[in-house]
Structures are given as structure tokens and as C-alpha cells.
Amino acid sequence: MNNFNKIASTALALGLTLASGNAQARDFRLGLITPPSHLWTQAAEGFGEELAEASAGEHSVSVFPSQQLGNEAQMVQQLQAGSLDMAFLTIAEISNRIPDFGALYAPYLVNDVAHAARLLRSDVAGELLELMPAQIGLVGVGYGMSGMRQILSRDPIASPQDLEGQRLRITPFEPIRDFYLAAGTAPTPLPLPDVYDALANGQVDAIDMDFEAIEALKFYDQAEHLLISNHMMFPMVGVVSGRVWRELSGEDRELIITTMNAHLDGVIDSVLEREPAQEAALRALDLTITEADEAFFREAIAQWEATWNQRAPALETLRQAAAVLEVE
Ligand code: BEZ
Asked: Which keywords has UniProt assigned to this entry (predicted)?
């Protein structure tokens, strides 16, 4: 059974142990933190349109981008309460609540976006989603992703020592905080919508970010040194509130799984297609570019692993899967 079918059958079978509800017309509210122009938001809109079409207009989806409904921690609470129906979330907030998800952020677990895509489409990654209903009351429908993580800074970063003391913006979650603490920086958690101003007003010296956001949100206007390190992948997950899921008919659940997964998977395809051009566009700008690999972060990685090998037992299995999927 492939990842998608497995997730679908698990989510359907779970039904979160209660009988499925009767079919009922709904306008689902879907929240996310990315701005309207971002790939994830466009995928959410596309999912809404397709769900409306496939349900012959019975269901619709209202998309709330740019943190309009709150940050991811707040959205997870709303999903748990059933006051928010759906969300496309970074794995960040999920890993704060289910540490095994932190394994997906292991530094250099994958080499590039193609390797990340293969891992996120694997059974091993799909099995992690099965932890969500029981542990946090959300149904994890499937994965999307963003590009590999890089570091954009005001001052050049040519050696591990240059990272020391840098106030470096991170997405608010523990595995990345631990990585940058181990690298000697002062990690500064900030959600995506706050990053531009934080760079502009000097609250941070550097940011952890992907090519797409650096380019689309013009972070390079505020910091002109780019360390191309590809140090982590950045998965996204499409979720439905467990409370809402219980109210849906089996037919509606299947429709949501199929349509949402098609758009999440489309996000992965788009990242694969677009990342080379985004990197080329940034390389063509007037930025200082330096490259780094696993050896650059060797000490930080050793410290990170000392903590996360224990906190995220799934890491071992994910590493084995990643090794198998390294070349295809
Ligand atoms: C970030 O927090 O860096 C981020 C969040 C969502 C999409 C892309 C980047």
C-alpha cells in the first residue's frame, strides 16, 4: 500500500472511533500562516475549489492566510476545540507536541528537495501521521513541503565561528532551536509574517529561510549574505480537526482526503520544479554567496543528535528509509 492509500485508509478507519456523521453541507474554514501569494496558500485555494466542484457545490472552503486566525499554536488549539476545521501547518508546531515529528528536522537527513519528496511520500513518513489523532486530536491528511533551509544574514558567515552570537530568526519549534543553540547563535523564534520587519528594524541579524520565501518576500533587501547550506527539509502537513472529522460522513472524509492530498502533493511537485529557478534568481542578485555542507555544522549536529536521537525514536527508522531513498 503506498503512503497516500495508507493514510487514507487509516484516517477513514480511525473515524476517531465514532460512527461517521450524516452528509451535511459545510463551509470549512482553513487557516495557514503563509501570505496569499505563497504556494501553500494557492494550494489551499485550489483544494477549496476542487472540493466545491467534486461535492457539486455542497461543500466550500474559506481560506484564512497570513495568520488571520492566529499563529500555528493558536490554530492547533482551535482545531482541537473544533472551532477551526482545517489547516496547512508547518511540522513545527506538531513537533512541539509530538516530539517524534522532530525527526523530520534532523540536519542533513536528506540531501535536497528531491530526496525530501521521496522521504515524505514514503510509508515511514506516512506512519508518523497516524500518531496525530490519538496524541493531539487532529487527522493528518498528508504532507506538502517548502524548500530546503538556508541562512540569510547581514554580515558574512564564512565559518562556524561567524555564527556565534548571531541573533538568528527561527520558526518557533524545538528541533531547530536546539540546532541553532548548538551552533552558538541566539535563536530568535518569529513566525513568517514577522520576519521582514524584524530584519528591517535590526531585531535579528540573520534568518533561517528557504529560497522561495527569500525571493518572494524580498528578505534579500534587508540582508545581503546568503549561506547556501541546505541543512534541513521543511515539511508541511494538511490537517482536519478530529472533532470535525467525527461529524463527517465516510463519503465526505474520502472526498477530503483525495482532494486535499492531490493539492498537498502538487505543492511538493511545485517545489521540485521551482527551486532550481529560485536558487538561480538569488544567485543572480547582488548577494554574497557562500556554500556550506554537513562538515560545516559537524559539532552542532553531534550536539543535536545527543538530544534528538532520544527524544524522537522515529529518527532511526527515518534515517534508514532516507538511506534507501538517497538515490533513485
Ligand atoms: C517559515 O517559518 O520560515 C516558513 C513557514 C511557512 C512556509 C515557509 C517558511
From this structure: Signal
Measured CA to CA, the distance from residue 49 to residue 278 in angstroms comes to 27
Best of 146, 150, 152, 168 to mutate for ligand 1, by most ligand atoms within 8 A of CB?
Answer: 146
Query: Quick one: DSSP state of residue 164?
Result: T
Q: How many residues does the chain have?
A: 328
Instruction: Calculate the CA dihedral of residues 102, 106, 112, 113 and round it to 10 degrees.
Output: 0
Grid cell in block for residue 180: 541553532
Determine the residue type at 22: N
User: For the residues 47-60, what does the mean pLDDT come to?
Assistant: 97
Mean pLDDT, the chain, integer:
94
> Is there an atom of ligand 1 within 6 Å of 209 CB?
yes
Tell me if 34 CB under 6 Å of ligand 1. yes
Confidence band, pLDDT 50/70/90 cuts, at residue 167: very high
pTM, entire model: 0.93
